[in-house]
Fold this sequence. Notes:
Layout: H1 2-13, H2 15-18, H3 20-25, E1 34-39, H4 46-49, E2 57-62, H5 78-89, E3 94-100, H6 104-108, H7 120-125, H8 130-139, H9 145-164, H10 168-175, E4 180-186, E5 193-197, E6 202-205
Parallel strand pairs: 1-2, 1-3, 3-4
Antiparallel strand pairs: 4-5, 5-6
Bound molecules: zinc ion (ZN).
Amino acid sequence: MKNLYNGAISFRKKDFETHKALFGDLSNAQKPHTLFIGCSDSRLVPSLITSTIPGELFIIRNIANIIPPYKKGNNFPATSAAIEYAVLSLEVENIIVCGHSNCGGCASLYKTEEQMKDLAHTNLWLELARPVKNRVMQMLPKATFAEREWMTEQMNVLEQINHLFTYPYILERFNNDKLSIIGWYYVIETGDIYNYDVDKGYFELING
Length: 208
Ligand SMILES: [Zn+2]
């Protein structure tokens, strides 16, 4: 734990000093251009992989970068509330949904009820990605583990983007060219980032 305290001291002395003027400018308002929706995985660092500085990304992170379909009256709609705030209040211009390699959330889709019995909330949350597993099993019934893994992770990005379009205000802004919707897939061990090309129908390497 001590390294966290030392980290806070180091931040104040180094990075904060470097960005002191920027933090001053940001003290009363934010105007991020992008809502980044990514997995909670510790190996995915949105500002690092996009080379962005404080104030640029509004970030939502949860298990398996899931977006609940639009529904009024959810009791605790954390992700939907953050989307609403980013789009309607901050008026972001882009939304990136970013999946990643070796995603534990996506892998859990293939676990049994028994294996997930101590992770009841996780299991419930993953219901929102369950159709992806079924689709992958249908499309690639004889796939290797690795093939099934990346296929699930990439198809989950598309599934969650489809969920985004159930939000009326997102659909409206997208149709009026006020909002871009971007699907990314990040590979931890190589730094590769693949962007989903809607016309081509597949993820294409953008930083190789
Ligand atoms: Zn993940």
